Amino acid sequence: MLDKIKALHSEIESLNAADAAEVEVLRIKYLSKKGEINALFNDFRALGPDEKRAIGAPLNELKTFATEKINTLREALDNNGASEISIDMSRTAAPVALGTRHPLSLVRAEIIDIFSRLGFTLAEGPEIEDDWHVFGAMNFAADHPARDMQDTFFIQRTPDVLLRTHTSSVQSRVMENSKPPIRIICPGRVYRNEAISARAHCFFHQVEALYVDKNVSFADLRQTLLYFAREMFGPETQIRLRPSYFPFTEPSAEMDISCNLCGGKGCSFCKHTGWVEILGCGMVDPAVLEACGIDSKEYSGFALGMGVERITNLKYQVNDLRLFSENDTRFLDEFTSAHK
């Protein structure tokens, strides 16, 4: 039996393994319950007292040696794996700063969340649109100034293909393909041919909402607007509606909120009026419903739309629209804590 122990010792001493799977095979072969060393312990139990005294110590030493050998092989493979992890020596030693969500994304998500609590679902559409969905279905007259080249980015004129000027085109597509009740919110980027300045840009972001059902009233619109304003700007926020005009709504209104900086007392931000305009709204014009295949005698609805940049300006007091698209990390870093 001593010869077997010596032979196994020499065999185990010369063991090598290419990967963890081979190490496990060796462990099972020598150290498992059905392994070779355990078989020697089974034979050891049948020996006499004198033989046990002579064999016991070498057998225990063999088991210890085999265990250490297997562990050594496993550790060597682990160390080799760690050394294979490449280090980019050209990488800066300075910590890599984590990014944050863009302020427009933060506000857009908050607007969507507020309206989702009222049952509005998300709807999206193409930014490259046709004249019908942008203007025709929205009751724009054929000679409306928005259809002029100086106001809208046309890709081609026959047929008219353009960059959408508002996300109302999403509303028209949904109304064409859905039956009331319709309750959607339409966020997205829109484009208008305007001079770029601190107050205007050739592209910006809108969020529009549409609700069409039986017996929808202006009172429903007002209460929706009040809920939105107080959720977005605080529970003390007041609103007022001023008559306005939009081709796709009748009656139409502009909505103001009490200035969130001075509490409605008057300051330079609100031009000492105590009010700040934030969106346009109104009851969906029956002509729009009919153009999209909805019976205006049975259904009514309201629509509203706002610029995300304007809401962001009010919420975070950003006074230059160009900052939102310049990718200046110094500006964007100011909103690191806003998304937490």
From TrEMBL:
Pfam families: Phe_tRNA-synt_N (PF02912), tRNA-synt_2d (PF01409). Residues 107-334 form the Aminoacyl-transfer RNA synthetases class-II family profile domain. Its cofactor is Mg(2+). CDD domains: PheRS_alpha_core. It is found in: Cytoplasm. Coiled coil: none annotated. GO terms for cellular component: cytoplasm. One of its GO terms (biological process) is phenylalanyl-tRNA aminoacylation. It catalyses: tRNA(Phe) + L-phenylalanine + ATP = L-phenylalanyl-tRNA(Phe) + AMP + diphosphate + H(+). Gene3D superfamilies: Bira Bifunctional Protein, Domain 2. It comes from the Bacteria. The keyword Metal-binding applies. Binds 2 magnesium ions per tetramer. Keywords: Aminoacyl-tRNA synthetase, ATP-binding, Cytoplasm, Ligase, Magnesium, Metal-binding, Nucleotide-binding, Protein biosynthesis. Mg(2+) binds at E250. InterPro entries: aa-tRNA-synth_II (IPR006195), aa-tRNA-synth_II/BPL/LPL (IPR045864), Phe-tRNA-synth_IIc_asu (IPR004529), Phe-tRNA_ligase_II_N (IPR004188), Phe_tRNA_ligase_alpha1_bac (IPR022911), Phenylalanyl-tRNA_Synthase (IPR002319), tRNA-bd_arm (IPR010978). The keyword Lipid metabolism does not apply. GO terms for molecular function: ATP binding; magnesium ion binding; phenylalanine-tRNA ligase activity; tRNA binding. Its EC number is 6.1.1.20. Tetramer of two alpha and two beta subunits. Belongs to the class-II aminoacyl-tRNA synthetase family. Phe-tRNA synthetase alpha subunit type 1 subfamily. This is Phenylalanine--tRNA ligase alpha subunit.
